[in-house]
Queue: 4 jobs
Job 1
Amino acid sequence: MKLRWDIFCKIVDNFGDIGVCWRLARQLRVEHGLQIRLWIDDLNAAQTIITNLDLAKNQQVCEDISILHWQEKADFSGAADVVIEAFSCGLPPAYLAAMAQQKSKWVNLEYLSAEPWVVDFHGKPSPQANGLTRYFYFPGFTESTGGLIRERDVEIGQETNHENTLKISLFCYPHASIHDLFTALQANNHAVNVYVPATSILPQIADFFGAETITAGDYFTHDNLHVHVLPFLSQTDYDTLLRDCDLNFVRGEDSWVRAIWAGKPFIWQPYLQDENAHIKKLDAFLELFYAGFSENKSTREVHQCWSAEHMSIDIWQSYLEHLPALKTYTLQQTKQLAKQPDLAAKLVIFCNNI
Ligand code: TRH
């Protein structure tokens, strides 16, 4: 009999919560043959990622995964064998009661971080009042963490040759200094093509070019800068775009991981957190990922600038000078990370053992 797994996803903000849960659900279904139900609190928001979702249905099957609308009146009576609570989203009391009956295994999937403390907390149990144990599962970059989401068929490091033009994808939070970046890019000594999937940054782009409206399909140019506005892509098409670019600006969690698997240089913008917690996250990642890159000063500076909402032209130019070396280094790091077991495979083993 197939093991039944339930994943609970609360969409707090943007696309990362559902982006991660959807990738994980699909991989557990396809590669591990598990019977998956994905509970989602906001179907409307989820539709951006699961495009064929029918908003009128509280229960439906997409790609062999049962999608259930997580709402107060839902039927929580049948708990699964394994329950994944994504990002401490909290579980409904009625479902917790059913889990206690079923003696379900309960894992809280945490956010990805390269901070060293993650290793000490990964896999730790937390006994609960209802007799169940909730386990903390931390994704991460080292063998002693829960790993990174990576499908079996992920294509790593496709060679691209864009002859004298630089191809960039841009996905970032609206507070990033797109104006500074574009100012630097337009003064580049050869053409730069920037591909921008439509998200909340479009007003900044329109503003830079003095356009009154902006929509997918639009093209803007100034000096050596060429900006192509794309529709918001499917996850598969987005992954393809990342592989096809020379440099990717990514953010949050899931696009960050995909940029790593694309094997191309990338600039990551962490999700803004209180008390500058995101800067600690950024520094920890830079420390870990670029430790073996001797010219890492400009890489650090460019990341710090991008997260600090200001991009100086000098720092940008110095970063670009190191891009060829960074290309080789990033691919090497990607291949190294891809030797580790992936998150889904490790999670399945972890759940078998608890
Ligand atoms: O959207 P994000 O900022 O998501 C999150 C959330 O904000 C979350 O609350 C926060 O805690 C977390 O970041 C750290 O960035 P992320 O994680 O990269 O998710 C974006 C998803 O959207 C990812 O699955 C890739 C996908 N995507 C597409 O499918 N098509 C596109 O065109 C683009 C630009 C992204």
Note: The chain has two domains: 4-151+340-353, 166-337.
Job 2
Amino acid sequence: MIIVTRPNVTDAEIDHIRERIEAAGMRTHLSRGERRTIIGCIGDESLLQEVPLRSLPGVESVTPVLKPYKLASREFVADRTVVRVGGRAEASFGGPSVTVIAGPCSVENREMILETACLVRDAGATMLRGGAFKPRTSPYAFQGMGAEGLRLLAEVRGATGLPVVTEVMDTRQVDLVAEHADMLQVGARNMQNFPLLAELGRVRRPILLKRGLSATIKELLMAAEYIMANGNHEVVLCERGIRTYETATRNTLDIAAIPVLKRETHLPVIVDPSHAGGDAALVAPLAFAAIAAGADGLIIEVHPDPECALSDGDQSLAPEAFADLMSRLEAFAAAAGRTISSAHDASRAVA
Ligand code: PEP
Ligand code: MN
């Protein structure tokens, strides 16, 4: 149930409405927007049957939520959510500008992660990615540097000022990853790892939730709902391609998912053109299409020497190709009514 309050509602009236709902056994979620305040009710709606909600002072309208996701739903929150990452909010998602995260698939050693961070920053990225715990299809493939990789990411954040995002695969790794990273990534293979999602609800770090290989948009939103229902509302969704019958690309980028998600949820939506296409040559056109379709950001794999990458070399951009993509991105952002966020914008937003 969603209660929209009158424009002149008082705090006392809001408190009274919430008390009546909570006394009936439901939870409430208050969202104050620029123009309206919404009180969302969470729980079994039949409990509210006997409460005369429409007659309470300050209530303008009462609407049932028919969608299974509530906290993630667009109707539940007055304004779009802007997720800020990093203690000084160096990067943000869902505001007027588009944010680019770039870096290697995996952290391989100190020199390469530092070199990659500097080159992606110089080309205009405002966040660094890099896997320390890697979900590999083969148990014989490189599994990531683990805890040492996390330590290197934190060191490189200190050296470059770029906030870092890295994957967490298991509930037992959550505290360690949260200690080192500014944003925690849930990979496609773990999108429905419900104990992990619940644990991430208790963490005070934004979450980058990637769409599962065969997940519907509704399932992606229900996964976000798990994190939010457990207390963490800072969730960024990521379309990274889904598995279809097409074999010409690693996955099929679901471009329509971007406007559909923007209609259904207030959460920011970004796109991973690297894992979608699985081919460095496809990264730029897919990135441009994503921005044209309304994405709030991109996450792109970049390697100083893709030929020698320990994972995902085929889809990783070489430094020059990444710089070229960044220089061409501006025009697509402008066509979509956006700008590309720069480190300068982010620090100004905080000041
Ligand atoms: C990754 O970001 O390196 C990764 C493994 O992505 P996904 O979970 O989307 O496959
Ligand atoms: Mn990868």
Note: Residues 105, 275, 301, 311-312 surround manganese (II) ion (ligand 2) (CB under 6 Å).
Job 3
Amino acid sequence: MAQGSIEVYESEGRTFPPSDEFAAAALADDRSLYDQADADYEAFWASQARDLLSWSKDFTSVLQWDLPFAKWFEDGELNVSENCLDRHVAAGLGDKVAFHWEGEPGDTRTISYSELLAEVERFANVMKGLGLSKGDRIAIYMPMIPELPIAMLACTRIGVAHSVIFGGFSPDAITDRCEDAEARLIITADAGYRRGEPSALKPNVDAALTAGAPSVENVIVVDRCGTDPAMVEGRDHWWHDLMANAEPSCPPEPMGAEQLLYLLYTSGTTAKPKGIMHTTGGYLTQVAFTHKYVFDLKPETDVYWCAADIGWVTGHSYIVYGPLTNGCTSVMYEGTPDTPRPNERSGDRASWNKDRLWDIVERYGVTQLYTAPTAIRTFMKWGDEWPARRDLSSLRVLGTVGEPINPEAWMWYHDNIGGNSCPIVDTWWQTETGGHMITPLPGVTTTKPGTATTPIPGVYAEVVDDHGNPVEVGGGYLTITRPWPSMLRGIWGDPQRYLDTYWAAYEGRYFAGDGARVDEDGYIWLLGRVDDVMNVSGHRISTAEVESALVDHPAVAEAAVVGATDDITGQAIVGYVILIGSVEASEELREEVRQHVGTKLGPTARPKAVFLVPDLPKTRSGKIMRRLLRDVADGRDLGDTTTLADPDVVAAIREGAAESDEE
Ligand code: PRX
């Protein structure tokens, strides 16, 4: 393992100077956690599980591994909400702030551990009152308001599994996910604030339930924006009405360690999203462990902020479950980073203050900031003057997640936000892994701009070639060689797909779907997805999903979608569309087709550009040659809207197709 080499780093043909932090980290060199794990990794995770969590019944079995099915701590019992709340209150930390919550319009709420517990108990009773009990599934479709973690924790109190659906998703996504999970309840809000305006949620739930999902019996609605949505008699209930009538006390029910905790749907290479299953004891162990060590947590004094959305796994593990298990104080923010600060709003977006994030860091004295490369690149583009206006000296650790970070963005984050002295933790993991897998540990690992470095203690990864042979130095595919506590336990309702997707490519190994390179120091450089999944601002979107939304438009005969390189979002979605014969191409139609995807799948999945083409390049077996389309898209200005049937795109595609045909 490479330690201590702190010369100038070279990456992508550029060099990056060392900083004080690299030197400091190299000196610390405390490898004890790695050594313990390597000596006996089951014993290592068992001791973490006991140290970090409270169990109502201790476990005797650590790991049962029947590839690809793992059971961790199986005969142990615990309750997640008790670990996140009751035990901290019992330890005298009831008045400690759990969340400094800030709404997008600037309204704030400070919620202590005892207040959070009281709300969770009440809401658990609300769900019980609606007939829900252990083993049921419910859906949550909410903005980033405190009621969201309250609802999640209330589920864990009584053994109900939640499926959080990102608030940016469309009605179709709600219908599909509720049908797949047979959800009995949807918890939502009338709307949430998004870029200065209420963005409606409840009407999307209504549309979803008109289209299907008959298992949903009740809808609970938080009145966030006062938009007065239509309420269906008997089915829809206001959160505040139910809470006003709920009993205050609801003891936590002990759960088996392998009790289903939640489902979180993620895109695959086919249009049908996969319900990733996470269970209780192993998941909580690994998220608590990583939250503590990766962010170098000092729970007494830290104010930690993960600026993700709870609709994604990052928010599940590192806004809700990890930080609360560790009893730390967090910031939770409703809006996007580029929304105006209070009292400075103007209709003109260009004049908004671009220091919302830095303002929050300064006001709360944030010590750890965890965000995505796409956000960092946006801040870079806005210019150094915005962070420079604020005092960011409280920051100690900076985190990044969601996609590979380019060394330039890494250095900018390090110098302009971290004042050249905060370690950067580039954390590689996935919805499926539940918690961090590959990341530096502050004070232990010497970092380099652009690499997630090495696996955490107790996690074992290898880069392999096409034949599944480990690559010592060089490029290949990222695999995980041993089970880990927070690993997915399967795909809801589809064990075969679980096996085929993750365990079939390389025997005995979990295949992550990412390309990676190992350098001379043994550090792992993530290179992005190798399958047909795009990564847009850190969100995984499958080409197949967007293609089916495109062909869903009545004028579209065939469609191919690729992710083109994009400076800000990592990848940008580009669609190539063949219209049905009788339809005349027009600029309006092109825009309409583009918007259609937004309506079907939500704005994140709306293509940045749609090209109308007469033909698509295909292999002899009829498979669309996405690689070629990607090259074509990479060579174009995606803002260019001058094309209809776009002669040069077509020429390029044809040329390329002809060449590859000859290969
Ligand atoms: O391609 C990798 C990329 O995001 C994928 C996982 O996406 P998702 O399940 O939505 O979870 C995102 C938050 C954990 C991975 O397969 N990815 C995530 N983190 C990194 C990354 N790529 C490079 N570096 C990272 N730090």
Note: The chain has 20 helices and 31 strands.
Job 4
Amino acid sequence: MTHSEENFQEKLIEFEARIARGEKIEPGDWMPERYRKQLIRMISQHAHSEIVGMLPEGAWIPHAPNLRRKMVLLAKVQDEGGHGQYLYHAAETLGATREEMTEALLDGRAKYASVFNYPTLTWADNAAIGWLVDGAAIMNQTMLAQCSYGPYSRAMVRICAEEGFHKKQGQEMVIQYAQGTLKQQAMMQDAINRWWWPTLMMFGPHDSESKNTPELQRWGIKTKTNDELRQEFIDEMVPALHALNLTIPDPELHYDEASGHWISGEIDWDEFWRVVKGAGPLNKERLAARRKAHEDGRWVREAAAAYAANMTNS
Ligand code: 3HC
């Protein structure tokens, strides 16, 4: 083993001992390149998910059924934009630049949560997104708040606090519509039918297919696996939706007395990968909207850069 390899091994042992002691790794600390790269991948795609995630609900802001619903949805969508900024900044502490991350999203190299490529067909979709999608995101993000990388875990604490409001406003609407007129009940059930499986897909492939999980768990970035979090979500949501006389669009779903878990049918992984790889219902529209927003904002970026250069030279 060369001297530098020996040196790397010593640093790696100390790095992993720090994580085992529950210490947070901070931007200036030594870290393996793979740790840095994994975090940039995960955090930047998380940020992209927040920004693209503004589009499905954003489309309904002008059509909210009343002023209160409009104000709540406006606040939620605005929060998501802010979450994207926190997360892009957390990725920048690892050396990624905003330009690189934005370019990777806009040219299709980077991923974002596949759930946001589905259409919001009725107002009740905003209720389903709030309770199901944001509820799933909170489950995942509460885990990430324990993450070994300081800036990411701290961003998660702030984001989870705001996601709590997102989930509650969705839950309030689901309860209202599930107990409303027959038309509202039918609209709510239709939304649950369309958002249930895309929400389960948010937790990622099965652990056996999750190529990133072993490394992420080794270094304390993930403290629970994709399937563990998905099972927690199913166990929480099935009884809650059944209590509202809403059905789950899964004929295989059943309760297993021995384990105390609700056992889900199999996710359509062909659909999952089709949507992840860009062939979902609205992938093209979502990226086109982000490309247009980026183009429309070009003059602002150029003006800010010119102002900053002028300030530096004066
Ligand atoms: N949509 C799109 N791509 C997905 C995906 C999904 N639902 N699930 C997994 N993938 C991708 C992964 O990114 C990975 O591809 P890559 O290596 O090119 O990045 C590949 O599929 C294999 O998946 P792995 O399980 O190996 O990947 P991870 O271990 O990274 O697990 C993850 C995937 C659970 C999404 C994990 O990255 C994670 O926890 N990310 C942080 C949280 C996040 O991004 N959440 C997205 C939703 S944010 C949100 O909902 C906003 C809220 O306000 C509504």
Note: The chain has 13 helices and two strands.
